[in-house]
């Protein structure tokens, strides 16, 4: 299959998202195509599992393109997503004598991408990074848009920076080794793009039905279309609002309440995408209660989330704890919790006038 | 004395540098003038010495302007300029529940400014920072331009980010409590601006003679002119090259060899400005050896450095160690050491064709 390119049209630093089977084999050439010269130092940051599957291919592609590459394997669970792990990447950057013209390549899922991106953002006040996501979640969301960061004991992603990659390279064949549950979780973000802005994508997901739930049942053509369409949706929002000053907040659809689920259940109980799916269902219930969208729209959203094999029932959480947790969310502005609420398939609004009673009743509906 | 304003004309984020006696008392009002609303949370980051002298005034000004301010005192020696100390600022940001619209104010010297700035750059992917420098060095250099960061065991300022302040507020009266040696060290950066781009400033410094060496002998009018002129020089270079892609490198005049002195003698033996003075003298000797400028220009530079009471004789360093250290400097590009060399009073060039023999002979002349 040919490679397809979506451009993230940022004024200061536009960059391509290249998508297609076997894209990984062209990694080195693509980097050279950006203007990096032969002999440029490249630090390839990955985790042990991804390294075992794709590390050799990536390194070979870099070497064949005459880049001076070496690999750093880090622990990349959510609980290792800390300033200390970023410090290990900095140590490697120093040991390898990375210069301002050098490059970090993040090969892996969202945690690797966030940490390698943040390390690049903060080494020598910012060196280039290329994102090579290997999970569906990272492909359709985290790798595009320049958000990087790590967790603070007080909350997820509180420490970080905006640092746009120079290139995002998405090779769907690397999904072959992804656990099925993680594949399904990634599909939640795809559904999100449909609900917030792409009714055609949502219709296509609906038409696909339960084949959404597994890479084994999804055709290569549909997967490619999903990846391209999701990347285009993300690119459009990011280009319009690089630093999350306004519009970009719509990408947080399902995330405000999703973070609450992750926090209160303990990170790891639900995968991020699973929590986002639950968050979208709850946001839909709030919309319903506020008369912002119809029961049939909420039913359509629910059907697609079900088809993707994602959880539908909220865990039994104390509503008081949920409300307290919402107040601590970093998307709070001036003390008001801001929700991204759907007003139809393909349309959302940002609202900070959701009453406590409405939240409580929506939660009750989700149980 | 009236406040004077220099604007740093960055396209995306222009900001004012406000200079004048008693400026500190207007801190809160100036922040409100930027558009921060009543009730905005402000974390005032400072060190114990500065807090004792100016903390109460700053906090009072913030409170009177209806800002919700509190103070964090950090240890701010060069050896505490680490990711761990930035972590303490992050902890305070979390404890105070800083939001995206909140603000960090850095009140202190370069170390406070670098760390508070870096903490702001990396909290919630970047919140606003206001720089209130209290040392001459920070006033004329570090506080303007958005360079923030901390040290890595491998070298100074290797970890950091570009993060422009929203405002720089310079109150010369806060120099009253600065140790004289630190005042003199700051003057080295002022002399630098004269040599790299402002012959009139250099002439004025020459005319002032030994009164440069102490705040007690320097008139308030001349000090104000020096601060305004230095800020204007820095602002101009920063506006032309925000991320140090080219022109801004001229600000490193005296710094390449200055860093070598700091590294090899151990940080703390020489103050940064003292090392920069030695670095300028050595760079001048290289220029002389390469026929780039005249012996009389070098003599003028030396006379002003002497008038400021700065050291003139290089420490006895092994030339091999100096050369090895230069290779590790982060201003190396593709293996070539780049020097900022004067070609006349007010003019510099960036050269990467300085031979090892020339460096050795220049060092010998400096001893």
TrEMBL record, chains A, B:
Its EC number is 4.2.3.4. It is found in: Cytoplasm. One of its GO terms (cellular component) is cytoplasm. Zn(2+) binds at residues 189, 255, 272. SUPFAM superfamilies: Dehydroquinate synthase-like. It holds the Pfam family DHQS_C. One of its GO terms (molecular function) is nucleotide binding. Keywords: Amino-acid biosynthesis, Aromatic amino acid biosynthesis, Cobalt, Cytoplasm, Lyase, Metal-binding, NAD, Nucleotide-binding, Zinc. Residues 72-184 form the 3-dehydroquinate synthase N-terminal domain. Binds 1 divalent metal cation per subunit. Can use either Co(2+) or Zn(2+). It is an enzyme of class 4 (lyase). Residues 186-332 form the 3-dehydroquinate synthase C-terminal domain. NAD(+) binds at residues 110-114, 134-135, 147, 156. The keyword Cytoplasm applies. It catalyses: 7-phospho-2-dehydro-3-deoxy-D-arabino-heptonate = 3-dehydroquinate + phosphate. Its cofactor is Zn(2+); Co(2+); NAD(+). Pathway: Metabolic intermediate biosynthesis; chorismate biosynthesis; chorismate from D-erythrose 4-phosphate and phosphoenolpyruvate: step 2/7. HAMAP family: DHQ_synthase (MF_00110). Catalyzes the conversion of 3-deoxy-D-arabino-heptulosonate 7-phosphate (DAHP) to dehydroquinate (DHQ). Belongs to the sugar phosphate cyclases superfamily. Dehydroquinate synthase family. This is 3-dehydroquinate synthase. It comes from Cyanobium usitatum str. Tous.
């Amino acid at each position: 299959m040919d490679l397809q390119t979506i451009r993230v049209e940022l004024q200061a630093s536009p960059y391509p998202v290249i998508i297609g089977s076997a894209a990984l084999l062209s990694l080195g050439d693509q980097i050279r195509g950006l203007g990096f010269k032969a002999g440029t130092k490249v630090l390839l940051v990955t985790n042990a599992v991804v390294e075992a599957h794709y590390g050799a291919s990536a390194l070979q592609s870099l070497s064949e393109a005459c880049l001076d590459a070496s690999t750093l394997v880090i622990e990349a669970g959510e609980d290792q997503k800390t300033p200390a792990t970023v410090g290990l990447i900095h140590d490697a950057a120093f040991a390898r004598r990375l210069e301002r013209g050098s490059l970090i390549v993040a090969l892996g899922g969202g945690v690797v991408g966030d940490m390698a991106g943040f390390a690049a953002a903060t080494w020598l006040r910012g060196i280039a990074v290329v994102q090579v996501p290997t999970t569906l979640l990272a492909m359709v969301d985290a790798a595009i848009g320049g958000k990087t960061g790590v967790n603070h004991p007080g909350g997820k992603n509180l420490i970080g920076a905006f640092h746009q990659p120079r290139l995002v390279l998405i090779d769907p064949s690397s999904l072959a080794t992804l656990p099925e549950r993680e594949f399904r979780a990634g599909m939640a973000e795809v559904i999100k793009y449909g609900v917030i802005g792409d009714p055609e994508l949502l219709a296509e997901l609906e038409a696909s039905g339960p084949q959404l739930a597994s890479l084994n049942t999804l055709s290569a053509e549909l997967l490619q279309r999903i990846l391209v369409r999701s990347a285009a949706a993300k690119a459009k929002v990011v280009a319009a609002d690089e630093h999350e000053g306004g519009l970009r907040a719509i990408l947080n659809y399902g995330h405000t309440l999703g973070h609450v689920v992750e926090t209160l259940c303990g990170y790891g109980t639900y995968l991020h995408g699973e929590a986002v799916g639950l968050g979208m269902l709850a946001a839909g219930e709030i919309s319903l209660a506020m008369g912002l969208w119809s029961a049939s729209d909420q039913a359509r959203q629910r059907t697609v989330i079900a088809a993707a094999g994602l959880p539908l029932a909220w865990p039994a959480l104390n509503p008081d704890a949920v409300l307290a947790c919402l107040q601590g969310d970093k998307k709070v502005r001036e003390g008001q919790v801001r929700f991204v609420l759907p007003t139809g398939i393909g349309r959302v609004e940002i609202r900070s006038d959701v009453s406590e009673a409405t939240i409580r009743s929506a939660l009750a509906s989700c149980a």
